[in-house]
Amino acid sequence: MNKYSLSALAAAGLLAGGLATSANAADLGGNCCADLEERIAELEATTARKGNRKVSLTVSGWVAQNITWWDNGEDDDVYVHDSGTTLGSNVKFTGQATIVPGWTAGYVLHMELMGSDSLTMDETTANGPALYAGVLSDSLGYNSVQTLQSYWFIKSDHWGKVSVGLQSQASDNTAILVDGSGSLVPANWVAFDYRAFGSGTLGTILGAASCGTMGGAVGDCNGLTQNAVRYDTPTFAGFSASASWGADDFWDIALRYAGELHGFKVAAAIAYNEVDDDNYNNLGAVAGAATDADYFQAGLYLQHIGTGLWILGNYGDFDDNIAAVEQETWYIKAGIRRNWNHLGATVLYGEYENVDDAYSGDGNFDLWGLGAVQEIDAAAMSLWVKYRDIDADDGPGNEAEFQLFQFGGLINF
After folding, report:
1. Distance separating alpha carbons of residues 178 and 185, to the nearest angstrom
2. I want to staple 178 with a disulfide (CB 3.0 to 4.6 A). Which of 101, 186, 301, 396 is the partner?
């Protein structure tokens, strides 16, 4: 933004000089350039400015919106909505400055701005209110700007990075972030599209499959950003590790790998986190409820470079040590990524998810879906269509089915 502003101001300065010379030659008086000066002031007013020249400023983010038809077996409707907290429309301000060679300090300020949160829309709520730390932002169903991340960091090229503040903890979405297919936003194991749906059986099962008092949304335990201290190692031969801690109290660790092996792109990650608190409050968690739980997750992504064929596997194991209940989640997605047209890569995929024991001890949750994503490189944009079918049961005679069809898009800036 500064580059374009400086170019505009330089051009305006040259133009001003030319006009001034002509005006003097014609003896037109001293007010000849008032309009030009006003225009320059307007350009300056629309320019992103930094508070100083020592710390850089980068503005980025994306806008994501979807049109979804849903059917719960008793009712159906069509909603227009965002992609849900942590994937929703957002703007991020980042920057850093060099302390000494090899050492930098920086910051991240990350805000979400959603018109309708898909995590909280349901049969009677078309405009889902933003859900952050288990609290609805507006009881009327409308959203406000909310802080997703706000932290500073110090980084060494040799010793790694320490971050302090509201941020993604080491285990935040670790398993699904290995997905390099280009279909991560429309298709992952988190219940972004349907979490709050389900009056009756489906709602009971979805609520039960949401990581209990730890909070989360089907396969995404401890899934929101936290006030934490985090450490990230430098990358060695494709490997990196992270650890974080936050009051009152959680801790986690993660190990990641990314590289190419024998003609395949490979990305893998594992993470483990524990929460032990009397008042832990995360996505869907019960405020004031005692929490003693742990969660293990793993993800693996393989893509054959020559053909574009790929497969993603995710596994999660949640243990509630108070209720003495274990819950396992499996998610598999596979497809092909190829450049079949001049717009960009086309991604075709199929997906399957199973949540076993669903927290109630005898529940079961199955999801399958199909979809296609078209990337538009010239606009840093992706468009997609997808279909999902959910079957859930909580014992004989207590069953539910849910379907959705969605057209969506995301544009980066």
Report:
1. 12
2. 301
- Res 259: pLDDT: 97
Q: Looking at residues 324-341, what average pLDDT do you find? A: 92
Which residues 6+ apart lie within 8 Å of 169 measured at CB?
222, 225, 226, 228, 230, 244, 246, 250, 252, 273
CB-based contact 192:216 (threshold 8 Å): no
Q: How far is CA 176 from the centre of its chain?
A: 11
Distance of alpha carbon 55 from alpha carbon 59, whole angstroms: 13
Q: Which of these, 189, 190, 171, lies nearest to 271 by C-alpha position?
A: 171
Which two tokens mark 251?
A: 């801790």
Query: Is the confidence at residue 31, as pLDDT, over 60?
Result: no
- What is the mean predicted confidence (pLDDT) over 315-324? 85
SS (H, E, C) the chain: CHHHHHHHHHHHHHHHHHHHHHHHHHCCCCCCCHHHHHHHHHHHHCCCCCCCCCCCCEEEEEEEEEEEEEECCCCEEEEEECCCCCCCCEEEEEEEEEEECCEEEEEEEEEECCCCCCCCCECCECCCCCEECCEECCCCCCCCCEEEEEEEEEEECCCEEEEEEEECCCCCCCCHHHCCCCCCCCCCCCCCCCCCCCCCHHHHHHHHCCCHHHCCCCCCCCCCCEEEEEEECCCECCEEEEEEEECCCEEEEEEEEEEEECCEEEEEEEEEEEEEECCCCCCCCCCCCCEEEEEEEEEEEEEECCCCEEEEEEEEEEEECCCCEEEEEEEEEEEEEECCCCCCCEEEEEEEEEEEECCCCCEEEEEEEEEEEEEEHHHCEEEEEEEEEEEEECCCCCEEEEEEEEEEEEEEC
**Digit-coded pLDDT (tens) for 263-307:** 999 999 999 999 887 555 555 555 555 678 899 999 999 999 999
Task: Report the alpha-carbon distance of residue 367 to residue 197 in Å, rounded.
Answer: 15
**Cα dist from 149 to 93, 155, 190, whole Å:** 10, 18, 20
Structure tokens belonging to residue 119: 């995590």
